[in-house]
Amino acid sequence: MITFEGVTKRYPGGTVALDDVSLECPTGRITVFVGTSGGGKTTALRTINRMVDPTSGRVLIDGRDVRERRPAELRRGIGYVIQHAGLFPHRTVLDNIATVPYLVGWNKKKARERALELMERVGLEPAMAKRYPFQLSGGQQQRVGVARALAADPPIMLMDEPFSAVDPVVRAELQDEFLRLQDELHKTIVFVTHDIDEAIKLGDRIAVFRTGGRLVQIDSPEDLLARPADDFVAGFIGRDRGIRRLSFVPASSAPLTDRDVLPADTPVERVTAVGWILVVDAGRRPLGWVSADALPASGALGDARLAPVGPTFDAETDSVRAALDAAILSPSGRAVAVDGSGQVVGVADQHDLTAAIRPAAPLAKDGVSG
Amino acid sequence: MDIDWGWIGDHTDTLTEHALLHLRLALLPVLFGLLISLPLGVLCRRWGWLYPPALTIANVLYAIPSLALFMIFIQYTGLTPSTVMIPLTLYSLSVLVPNVVDGLASVSEPVRQAATAMGFGPLRRLMRVELPIAVPVVMAGTRVAAVSSVSLVAVGQLIGQGGLGEDIIRGYQLQFQTQIVAATVLIILLALVTDTILVTVQRLLTPWARARGASS
Questions:
Q1: Has residue A286 got a pLDDT over 80?
Q2: What's the pLDDT score for residue B27?
């Protein structure tokens, strides 16, 4: 656990980079510092490895003041990843990754073995070991940066906008792999970003900083979206936070109905439903939609002209946001829920879905409309 | 112009001896210049205020005619090689000091920060990260200093310490063109060979900079 106790950083000349910040970054979790530029989030990050020493207040790691420790020694136990990777241009990929193991005195063979192992972990071909940083793409450099930070297996990782300088596709890829890695490694991570979407995607806890180095709010992503502390936070999160909140509500909480789900061989005379009917095959796989008032006079349901099913959602694993998206894109305005094997579990319309989130989501102070 | 090839054939021993002496007189000053410039450049990077006066002094030294410097040092070191090598060392500073400073400045801020955050202390960071990255820029300056030093040494013959300069002056006194041409060509060759060796050394020292050229 990393603890900030009333941390203030004032520069000569009066600029306040951090203003009485107190917070906790729980062990094994990702805490994201987010905010406008000049909000002090990077300064806050750097007080942890003593690249910045506070003017007043304390930063503790597992209860121990970081200022009791020599900076160089402290830093070797804390991984650090920055925006442009900051790889050493004169060292090969392998030696870049082995930097901290060399510093703490591992022998060359062991350090290189460890570096190779990490290359695999972060998705780099072993053939790249002998290359120099400028021969890599931005995304690959960032992977080397992450591997280098992990090399001596530090319990803590500091990451300062590590994915900001790569294109959006690579960024999403790096974010996903980062989360996968964290699932295996359970590091205590402090992650700085100016991108609220990245914060919500990656953070277990999000600390919002505003200009003047003030911590405005620290909460889980769900609670941050549901209850922004003030207009600044609400504005920072952006307009569609109601929709984004739905990402945290499991679709399994939505009420499903299978009343209007009928097999293809149902004779049309026996159809009593009004409105849209989802036609399924014998294995309950969706075939398409048909409107009750567009049915032929006789024959089976499957003979009618069917509108395409549209996207489906997984009733077990998807969020209400995915379900709502499926409903909006469906010709019938209803989303088709399937199970893991693709069989239809039921359908839900947009109203059902939004009704489902009202009790599921905590009441928002400013009243999110349903 | 008639070249007396027979004379050259008869005097290869003396010419070789003069050439080796010439190299020694030219290159030792560059080495001493580097030994002064590296720490001085590091200090100039650390305390920015030091750089402008240091550079000004180096440039003023470079502006002093070599003859004047010989006359000054002759009072202390006499007609010895030192009297030639000390001015040459001082001259090399005007190229080497700015190159060391620029070389250190070529280390990008993220790299410096990453090194600090990985747990390099200031000295280790300098030796293992900053200076190695500065090598290509420092070597570029060293090449200029070495080549100009090779051609400057000849002037040292004014006090009897000029390497191949001796052959140029002797040739002039005897109105014997072959000796002048042979010495001049040898000086040019020495400069070229020195430069080639320095380029090779740099490539061996900085494979990462060579690869940069190859891949782009």
A1: yes
A2: 95
- Please provide the DSSP assignment of A149-176 as one string: HHTT--SEEEEESTTTTS-HHHHHHHHH
| Cβ contact, residue pair A86, B113, below 8 Å | yes
Give the three-state DSSP class for A229: coil
3-state secondary structure of A25: strand
The full set of domain ranges for chain A reads: 2-248, 252-359
Any CB–CB contact under 8 A between B12 and chain A?
no
Reported as a single tens digit per residue, the pLDDT across A346-357 is: 998 888 887 755
Over residues A93-112, the pLDDT tens digits come to 999 999 999 999 999 999 99
Strand ranges of the sheet holding A214-219, from the earlier edge strand across to the other edge = A78-82, A156-160, A188-193, A30-35, A205-210, A214-219
Q: Could you tell me which of A160, A144, A163 has the C-alpha nearest to residue A97?
A: A144
B142–chain A nearest CA distance, Å:
20
Q: Report residue A354 as tokens.
A: 């939004």
What is the distance between the alpha carbons of residues A306 and A295, in angstroms, rounded to a whole number?
10
Query: Considering chain A, what is the average pLDDT of its residues?
Result: 89
Supply the pLDDT for residue B211.
52
Q: Do B118 and A135 touch (CB under 8 A)?
A: no
Nearest CA in chain A to B124: A103
Q: Read off the tokens for A12.
A: 């000569």
Residue ranges and CATH numbers for the domains of chain B are 5-105+136-205 (1.10.3720.10)
What pLDDT was estimated at residue A298?
A: 81
pTM over 0.80: no
* A188 beta partners: A156
Per CATH, domain A2-248 is 3.40.50.300 = yes
Domain covering A252-359 in this structure, CATH number: 3.10.580.10
Output DSSP code: residue A299. S
B114–A80 C-beta distance less than 8 A = yes
Rounded to 5 degrees, φ, ψ at A88 are -80, 115
Cα–Cα distance measured from residue B53 to residue B50, given in angstroms and rounded to the nearest whole number: 6
Residue appearing with tokens 């001015």:
B87
Q: Which residue of A has its CA nearest to B132?
A: A90
Total residue count of chain A as it appears in this document: 370
Q: Note whether A72 contacts B120, CB cutoff 8 Å.
A: yes
Q: Which residues contact B151 (CB under 8 A, 6 or more apart)?
A: B187, B191
